[in-house]
Structure formats: structure tokens, C-alpha cells
Specification:
Elements: E1 2-7, H1 10-22, E2 28-33, H2 40-51, E3 65-70, E4 73-79, H3 87-91, E5 102-107, E6 121-128, E7 131-138, H4 141-150
Parallel strand pairs: 2-5, 2-6, 4-5
Antiparallel strand pairs: 1-7, 3-4, 6-7
The structure holds adenosine-5'-diphosphate and magnesium ion (MG).
The site of magnesium ion (MG) has 5 residues, from helix 2.
């Protein structure tokens, strides 16, 4: 099941991400794909703020992952763009990031190869005229539950 939407500006991306965040009811893994500047970090900010996080959401470009605690969840925002070798994820203790109380947003998931948990939702954002087009693909029943509520 797939949800496709035109997002005319940053606020639209932000708002949709907040809706997705509020639909998360169990451990959730979200892959975020798209070129530099597509809006992956914007989506992540909207997601965290949708959960009630009020602080600054920094791009984890150099740290690879930024952790948050909000609304009873541990949220991990990854940006794997600068990951030189997927093995680095092993040194980071990657498995600890995919426990029952975790919501994971992963920019550039392709760089993590098969060391990442599989995604419930695969999101891709592309440039479209002045705005963006978002595709949200559900990979399992839980993902389909979320996507069905966006329609
Ligand atoms: P990424 O993490 O994919 O590299 P960012 O979220 O950091 O991208 O940056 C997206 C940039 O594009 C921001 O400067 C934002 O203001 C701009 N922008 C314009 N339109 C949109 C849109 N519809 N959704 C998200 N960002 C948008
Ligand atoms: Mg980014």
C-alpha cells in the first residue's frame, strides 16, 4: 500500500510528518530517501515535534545518530550519508536502536546495507515543481495501518 502526496512547502512536509508520528503505536522503523535538500530532515523535525518534542532537532550529519526521549519513546534520528562502511554500525551497537520502545528515522538507509532493521515504512521525497512529492510505502500490516489512516 502506498500513499502519494504533493507537498507545496516545508510546512506541508512538517505537518504530514506530525500526523505519521502520532499514528505510531509500536516499534517503528522509517527509511527516508531522496536527494540532498529533498526534505528528509524536515520530515524528521516534524515527526519529533508531532510527538511533543520541543527542542532543537539537529541534522545528525556528523554524529550519524541523534537520540531523543519523548512521549515514552526513544526516538533515533539517523543520517547515514557519511557512513563510510556499514560495519561502523556494528561498532555503534546498531541492534540496541531497534528495541520495542524505539522509533527510528533513517536518512540514507542504503548506506547501512543489511545491518538495519527492515522498514515498516519506506518514504521517498522528490523535487516536484516548486515543492516536493512524497511517497510512503507500507511494507507490512503495521505500516499499512498507518498508511490507511493518511488517506
Ligand atoms: P534533506 O534532509 O533531505 O537533505 P532538508 O530537510 O535538510 O533536506 O532540507 C530541505 C530544504 O528544502 C529546506 O531548506 C526546506 O525549507 C526546503 N523545502 C522547500 N519545500 C519543501 C517541502 N515541500 N518539503 C520539505 N522541504 C522543503
Ligand atoms: Mg538531512
Amino acid at each position: 500500500m502506498k500513499y502519494t502526496q504533493f507537498l507545496q512547502d516545508e510546512q506541508a512536509t512538517y505537518a504530514l510528518a506530525g500526523v505519521v508520528a502520532k499514528l505510531c503505536m509500536q516499534r517503528t522503523v522509517i527509511y527516508l530517501s531522496g536527494d540532498l535538500g529533498a526534505g528528509k530532515t524536515t520530515f524528521s523535525r516534524g515527526f519529533l515535534h508531532g510527538l511533543g518534542f520541543e527542542g532543537i532537532v539537529k541534522s545528525p550529519t556528523y554524529t550519524l545518530v541523534e537520540p531523543y526521549e519523548v512521549a515514552g519513546w526513544r526516538v533515533f534520528h539517523f543520517d547515514l550519508y557519511r557512513l563510510s562502511d556499514p560495519e561502523e554500525l556494528e561498532f555503534m551497537g546498531i541492534r540496541d536502536y531497534f528495541e520495542d520502545d524505539c522509533l527510528c528515522l533513517i536518512e540514507w538507509p542504503d548506506k547501512g546495507a543489511d545491518l538495519l532493521a527492515s522498514a515498516d515504512l519506506e518514504i521517498s521525497i522528490g523535487f516536484e515543481s516548486e515543492g516536493r512529492q512524497i511517497n510512503i510505502l507500507a511494507n507490512n500490516d503495521y505500516g499499512r495501518m498507518i498508511v490507511s489512516k493518511l488517506k
